[in-house]
Amino acid sequence: MPTSSGSDLPQEMQTCIELCNDCHKACLETAMYCLQQGGKHAEANHVRLMFDCAEICQTSSNFMQRGSDLHVYTCGACAAVCRRCADDCQRMADDLRMAACAEMCRRCAASCEHMSHAAA
């Protein structure tokens, strides 16, 4: 899907799109890492949450890229899911990869939270 690079989308939306795309990638890659690690990393609820986070990030990015006014709803949901994923990854913050994923989720959550209120 083509991305908006320098299009008519506001800069804060372009930044949020980038963060959503980065978080999507981080959660997918980290979920696969978790499955390889096993143990608490591979708990079903944790891995499911990481995939949920990746999916809602992709969805929010898509809504913003096409200029949908409904992005306020997907961004609100994305912020909530990213916060939950960050908290869950933070449980394993002694693992640097998990700490990095938690931080990425927090950054995406903050941006999506802002976007969910931007048009309200």
Describe this structure in words.
With 120 residues, the chain is mainly α. The protein has a single domain, classed as Substrate Binding Domain Of Dnak, Chain:A, Domain 2 (Up-down Bundle). The protein is 77% helix and 0% strand. Helix 1 packs antiparallel against helix 2, helix 2 packs antiparallel against helix 3 (71-90) and helix 3 runs antiparallel to helix 4. The model is unreliable at 1-6 (pLDDT under 50).
CATH architecture: Up-down Bundle
Q: Care to count the β-strands?
A: 0
As a percent range, the share of helical residues equals over 70%
Instruction: Write the element-wise H/E pattern from the N-terminal end onward.
Output: HHHH
Radius of gyration: 14 Å
Main β sheet profile:
none
- Gross morphology: elongated
The CATH class is identified as Mainly Alpha
Strand portion:
under 5%
Q: What do the pLDDT scores average to?
A: 93
